[in-house]
Amino acid sequence: MSNASDVKHTKFYDYHVEAGGKMVPFAGYLMPVQYAGGIMQEHLHTRDKAGLFDVSHMGQVVVDGEGAVAALERLVPVDLEALAIGQQTYATFTSEAGGILDDLIITRWSEHCFFLVVNAACKEQDIKHLRKYLGDLEVTYLSGQSLLALQGPKAKDVIGELTPEANELLFMNGFHTVIGGIECYVTRSGYTGEDGFEISVKDENALALADQLLAYDEVQWIGLGARDSLRLEAGLCLYGHDMDVSKSPIEAGLNWSVSRSRREGGSRPGGFLGSGQILKHLADGVAKKRVGFLIEGRAPVREGAEIVDNQGNVVGVVTSGGFAPSLQIPIAMGYVNTEFCAVGTTLDALVRGKNRPMTVVKMPMVPQRYFRG
Amino acid sequence: MGETVYTKDHEWLVIVDGVATIGVTEFAQEQLGDVVFVELPDIGALLTEGDEVAVIESVKAAGEINAPINGTVVAVNEILADEPELLNSSPEEGGWMFKVTLDEDYDISELMNKAEYQDYIAVNA
């Protein structure tokens, strides 16, 4: 663990403070949990206009070298061979026991070169993991690189003025471009359920890029608090909460993240860490699974709350929960025994000794608005 | 109107004829952020100083309110059930939380007056 003296700042630290950011330690960095507007306002702003997120604490890593496809495919249950240059995929680093070490986005930069964005709290462990298994390949941590996300329905208007070709990108695709003289790598992706972009930029140009984005009236800084409520509404997992090394991607409800070709009957089945267990989970089913909930009433149900059936038996636990600003009701996700996973199942969460009725719903709770052409 | 006194947990009390009206301060609501739910005590509940008596849930987190004084709950602010945001917009008036009849020998000598509380938050903020 790091102590207070080595808490890091991103390049945007002064901008956050100036915008009224309430700075809190997060994964070794001082990050804004909210700004002057507050979580509710920031959340709704992102759904309505364009929110700017500093995600520079996340790990940006490049894997390069002949054999990168096969080597990386040992660590993720994804078809990287089929990934086009400039295309991205969601992936999990699986453990030997079939759990999840981290989740990440992989972008193919060229035939043998991949760009990875990993969670801040896991990045050191991830880099060790990559170096351990990708001995012959170059694994480079881009320590001098910042990352911004611009999310929301107006993001395309802003980016479209600064670099018009970006609007032709489909969801989960990226390209190298220049914004006001600044070289960046722009992808159409994000963690809010909205259409939006992530922009990787050299540290020395980071503030100048932010200035260009913040020059638009519809762009506003958004903190980690709203980032959490936005991703929860969008049904997206938070590593360390909704998944971890004790859960397989199948238990986490991420079956879609295991490529067809890597499954039984596919062209290259298995061959990734934990594939025995994960393919078994796919074939035989799992005992517990991640589902989403709408909560009755207004009381939020938070991480750690026990879930009970109508007889009062404990059948699960909440892993993320809070008030959903876009729906104006509390929502949650959690793990329950598979017999209670069906949409429409009614269960109770225990909050301070009171039963809070809730219903299993399909995720996302707020429709995703990705741009797929 | 009685004098307003304050606790180190950022609650305020106005005591009139042995009945204290209790809520949280402007400073507390700023710290909490957007309030979305308030869980209030039952009328008739007997409070001992330090007991958890209410919970304020913001978008961010749950904050517990402990009884600042011994007594019996005689009223709760029912409006907060439908308008929890009153705690943000008017924490020291419309957003009051509950009223307590105090034991006869109540003692508020440990609580702060307005000036003392202002100094306290200036140091502890």
Give your account of this protein's structure.
Chain A has about 375 residues and is α+β, with helices and mostly antiparallel strands. Helices cover about 20% and strands about 35% of the residues of chain A. Chain A has 8 helices and 19 strands. In chain A, strands 10-11-12-9-3-13 form a 6-stranded mixed sheet. In chain A, strands 14-17-16-15-18-19 form a 6-stranded antiparallel beta barrel. A 5-stranded antiparallel sheet of chain A has the order 5-6-7-4-8, with helices on one face. In chain A, helix 2 packs across helix 7. Chain A is globular, with a radius of gyration of 21 Å. Chain A starts with 12 loop residues before the first helix and ends in a 12-residue tail after the last strand. The relative contact order of chain A is 0.14. Chain B has about 120 residues and is of the alpha+beta class. Chain B has helices at about 25-30, 80, 85-90, 115-125, and strands at about 5, 10-15, 20-25, 35-40, 45, 50-60, 60-65, 70-75, 100. In chain B, the strands form 2 sheets. Chain B has a 6-stranded antiparallel sheet with strand order 1-2-3-9-8-5. The longest helix of chain B is centred in the C-terminal third of the chain and has 11 residues, at about 115-125. The radius of gyration of chain B is 14 Å and the shape is globular. Chain B starts with a strand and ends with a helix. The mean pLDDT of chain B is about 95. The interface of A and B includes residues 40, 299 and 323 of A.
